[in-house]
Amino acid sequence: MKKLLFTCSLLFTTALLTSCATSESDNAQACNAGNVKLTTEFATARMDSCKRTADNEYLITLKPENTPINSSPWYAFKVEADQPTTIKVTMLVKGDEHRYPPKISQDGKTWKLQPYKLKGERLVMNIAASNDPVFIAGQEIINNQYYIDWANKLMNTNAGNAMLSYDLLGNSTQGRPIYKIESKGQGNEWLVILGRQHPPEITGALALFPFVETLLSNSELAATFRDKYNILVIPNINPDGVQAGNWRHNANGVDLNRDWNDFKQIETKQINGYLEQLVANGQKIKFAVDFHSTKSNVFYTMPIDYGVEDAYFVRHWLGDLDQKMPDVEVVLKPGNNPGLGVSKQYFSDKFGVHAITYEMGDNTDRQEIKDIAFNASNLLMANMLSDVDHNKE
Ligand SMILES: [Zn+2]
Question: Ligand 1 centre and the CA of 294: distance in Å?
Fold first, then answer.
């Protein structure tokens, strides 16, 4: 297995948009007075409390939106100072521990690791503050506007493609738009791509973008694929959680990826309704991929003997990925939790097909995330188009 060390020299870029610095943060508890300011007036910002403890020393406490909750303390704040100075920031997580090593960015697009030390439960860092603000965040900031700009760019790149559409699927609990991108060809079978049920799971988002770009590319494989299969992409399912910098939940404090049985939340309910409507109109859901992040790269699958069609399909596909990328460990974890309300299980139970939860490690090298996504996307298309009998090993 290739070592995925996260070194401080690592510099990764995302095409992050300048709209980082918009307003609408409703959780601002900022140290926003004096020569040095720590502020949260931008989308995705989160700093649950901030205290100046001495000259140029600050204590930030992070708290979840509600409990119980999966441990993924998110933070994002802006630092600026009237005069160049170094400040010491200590971060504590109430009732939990840190998950994301801090990143720093001046423009919100290019991020690098911010040096830090862990002293027990305290994460301590020295930050060079000046009148050029810097962003500090748990991962690269990918806000709601980023998705809109990404989709618009995709539509512009594919302006001649009449099969492609981008429009509203529905609205979130707080009324934010939930968008879908669709490619509709001649056939009636659909590949469904989901993303960002869990707001801080940025590496999942960093995988979804190149994965979808590859599906919509002008390669011969992708063009052939889109002639045969339709694609539905819902890249940002939890825009309220993204806006608020939530650790995991939607605006009602509910984990959306535990709601695919009950559909008590408007976000999942609308997607289920849309898929039911497709099926009622003679369409067939063929496969689904839901993008997330966890400690290390892992593909959660349904068991081969679960009884869905093309029993070996996922094994064939990810087996091909394993062969294609010998330096990357491709880990498959089959599982079956009928009561849990996870999207993967929903697709299998409701439509009788395979689905996976595509998890990238929090600290996986950003270029490697892109490489895996590119290969996984191409191999998925090749497998869905191949004549191989996926009911056999
Ligand atoms: Zn997740």
Answer: 7
